[in-house]
Amino acid sequence: MQNNIFSGLFVGQNLVTIKEVDSTNTFLKNLLSNSKPLPEGTVIMAESQYAGRGQQQNKWHSEPGKNLTFSILLTPGFVPVISQFDLNRVVSLGVFDALEVYLGDKLKIKWPNDIYYEDRKLGGILIETNILSGHIKHVIIGIGLNINQENFDAGAGNAISLKQILHKDYDLRTILSEICAHIEAYYLSLKAGRFSAVREVYLSRLYWLNQQKYFRSNDQVFEGIIRNVKDEGLLVVENNNELQEFSLKQIEFLNK
Ligand code: BTN
User: Fold this and answer.
1) Which ligand 1 atom sits nearest the alpha carbon of residue 52?
2) What is the atom index within ligand 1 of the atom nearest the CA of 113?
3) Which of 31, 224, 228, 232 has the smallest C-beta neighbourhood within 10 Å, fewest atoms?
4) 41 lines ligand 1 (CB under 6 A)
């Protein structure tokens, strides 16, 4: 029997591991444009990235060999372009469920798709969508999770790793396979049409949901309460008894 720790049907079944690459997202993108089609669920995992990319043009730093840095290829033709944020939900929930087993209820999803433990960032997700003639052709889902790294540069902000929380080393492949299985399960739920169920679970896992907190928008600091996430992904914050909607670039969470 083949030794395969990936329990799902397709996510992670075609696993390519690389020692060093610029960025697994970029590598997968180039592979798609240069070679024959790849099976859905292909995963590119790197031991080390020298030009890891984060959201909003940020860099993603990760100590070689210590953490998970990988990209998954999905071809969700069944998801209308307007509903593409549901893919963010699927992926964040998949990562969340895999890590919740280790970390319990201090784990949250910070909108739109950061993985948080208490007030610190354990991981991030970068989804790059390729749309052709009004349909989603494929998405490249890049996931970076701090697993066994023990120290972070001051520039890494509020980063934290699984090891810093639980004081143990973890096998990267095992956690990768767990994440793939959970993402696949949520993805298949979406494919079966259970969009509202996925949206409900996502909301229930949200960092700062229904709590009075500080935010910044347009250089103004205000106290508000996260009440919802619109179907298409906008964050709904209550401010002075009014509901306002924000895109990622329009709002900043303030820890003070
Ligand atoms: C963020 O929080 O800003 C998103 C970080 C995403 C990092 C991952 S690591 C694997 C994949 N390759 C990249 O270059 N970025 C993503």
Assistant:
1) 14
2) 2
3) 232
4) no
Strand 15-21 with 43-49, pairing: parallel
41 CA to centre of ligand 1 in angstroms? 17
For the chain, the first-to-last Cα distance in angstroms comes to 55
53 lines ligand 1 (CB under 6 A): yes
The residue among 248, 238, 250, 255 whose CA lies nearest residue 111 is 248
Amino acid identity, position 32: L
Q: Using an 8 Å Cβ cutoff, are 11 and 181 in contact? A: yes
What's the burial of 61, exposed, middle or buried (CB within 10 Å: 0-12/13-18/19+)?
A: middle
Cα 68 from Cα 161, distance rounded (Å): 11
Determine contact, residues 53/160, Cβ cutoff 8 Å: no
| Alpha helical stretches, state H, 50-161 | 85-103
Tens digit of pLDDT for each residue in 183-241? 999 999 999 999 999 999 999 999 999 999 999 999 999 999 999 999 999 999 999 99
Task: For residue 227, give the 3-state DSSP assignment.
Answer: strand
pTM for the model: 0.96
User: Helices marked H in the chain — which ranges?
Assistant: 24-34, 85-103, 162-166, 172-191, 195-204
Q: Give the type of residue at 139.
A: V
